[in-house]
Write a structure and sequence with these properties.
- The chain is α/β, with parallel strands linked by helices.
- The chain has one domain (6-246): Creatininase (Rossmann fold), CATH 3.40.50.10310.
- The protein is built from nine helices and four strands; from the N terminus they run αβαβαβαβααααα.
- The protein has helices spanning 6-14, 38-54, 82-97, 114-124, 139-151, 157-160, 166-176, 195-204, 223-246; strands spanning 19-24, 57-59, 103-108, 132-135.
- Strands 2-1-3-4 form a four-stranded parallel beta sheet, with helices on both faces.
- Helix 5 (139-151) packs across helix 9 (223-246) and helix 7 crosses helix 9 (223-246).
Length: 247
C-alpha cells in the first residue's frame, strides 16, 4: 500500500479488497552472516505472498522494529518495549478500520512479537466489534511447520533452528542473496529445542545460549529450499487465516 496512492487504495477497498495484512518484524542481530533486518525482510515477503494468495487483500507497511530485548547484548539490535509495540498495533487498527477494511491481519515473523501481538489483539477486539482483527500468534505452530518442511529435505529441526539457522538463512538467500555472507556460516546452538530453551532465551538473552547469536546450523542453507520454505509456509498460514476469518 505504501507504493499506491490513496485513490487506488480507496477504489480497491470499494471493489472488495477489504482484508489488510501487516507483517511485524524486528531489527536485531542474526548471527555473523545475516543482516539485522532479517525478520522484517522475511515478514514483508511472507505478508506479500499471503496477500496475493488471499486474493482480496492488500499489504500495509511492515512494522519493522519489534520486541528484541533478548538480543540487546549484540551490536545493532534495536528493541521496542512491549507497550510501544502494542500502541503501534492499536494505531494501525484505528487508522485502517476507518478506511473500510473489515479484516486486519498481523503476521509476526520474530519470536519476541508473538505474545505482545496476541495481547494487543485481545485488548482491541472489544473496541472494534465491526472489524475482525487476527494475529498469527502461535509460535510453536509456526516453527513446527517450518521444521516439517525442512525434514522433507533431510534437515533436522536442530539444523533448521529457530534463529539464523538453516531455515532463515535459506529464506534470506531466496529473497536478498546479496545480504547473506556465506563465508561466515557457522553452526550455533544445535541442542534440543524445547520449552526450557525459550525460557532461557527470553529471561537471560541469546548470549546465554549462543555466543554468535545463532540457534541452528546455516552451513547447508540453499536458495531453492528457501523458496520452498516461503511458499509452503505462506500456504499453511493462509489456510489458518481463512479458518479464522470464517470463525
Amino acid at each position: 500500500m505504501e507504493e499506491m496512492n490513496w485513490v487506488d487504495i480507496y477504489e480497491a477497498i470499494q471493489k472488495g479488497f477489504t482484508i489488510v495484512v501487516i507483517a511485524v518484524g524486528s531489527i536485531e542481530q542474526h548471527g555473523p552472516h545475516l543482516p539485522t533486518q532479517t525478520d522484517s525482510v522475511i515478514g514483508d515477503f511472507l505478508a506479500h505472498l499471503i496477500a496475493l494468495k488471499l486474493e482480496n487483500a492488500l499489504q500495509a507497511l511492515t512494522i519493522r522494529i519489534g520486541c528484541s530485548d533478548h538480543h540487546l547484548s549484540f551490536s545493532g539490535t534495536i528493541s521496542l518495549k512491549k507497550e510501544t509495540l502494542k500502541a503501534i498495533i492499536a494505531d494501525y487498527v484505528e487508522s485502517l478500520s476507518k478506511h473500510g477494511f473489515k479484516t486486519i491481519i498481523f503476521l509476526p515473523s520474530h519470536g519476541g512479537n508473538f505474545i505482545p501481538i496476541e495481547e494487543a489483539i485481545n485488548e482491541l477486539k472489544p473496541k472494534y466489534p465491526w472489524t475482525k482483527i487476527i494475529g498469527y500468534t502461535n509460535l510453536t505452530r509456526y516453527m513446527m511447520r517450518l521444521w516439517k518442511i525442512a525434514q522433507k529435505y533431510g534437515i533436522s529441526a536442530q539444523e533448521a533452528g529457530s534463529h539464523a539457522g538453516e531455515v532463515e538463512t535459506s529464506q534470506m538467500l531466496a529473497i536478498v542473496e546479496d545480504q547473506v555472507i556465506n563465508e561466515r556460516f557457522e553452526s550455533g546452538y544445535v541442542g534440543r529445542i524445547e520449552g526450557d530453551l525459550s525460557k532461557t532465551l527470553f529471561e537471560k538473552g541469546m548470549s546465554a545460549i549462543s555466543g554468535i547469536g545463532v540457534i541452528g546450523d546455516p552451513t547447508r542453507a540453499d536458495i531453492e529450499r528457501g523458496r520452498v520454505y516461503l511458499e509452503q509456509l505462506a500456504d499453511y498460514i493462509c489456510k489458518d487465516i481463512r479458518i479464522s476469518i470464517l470463525d
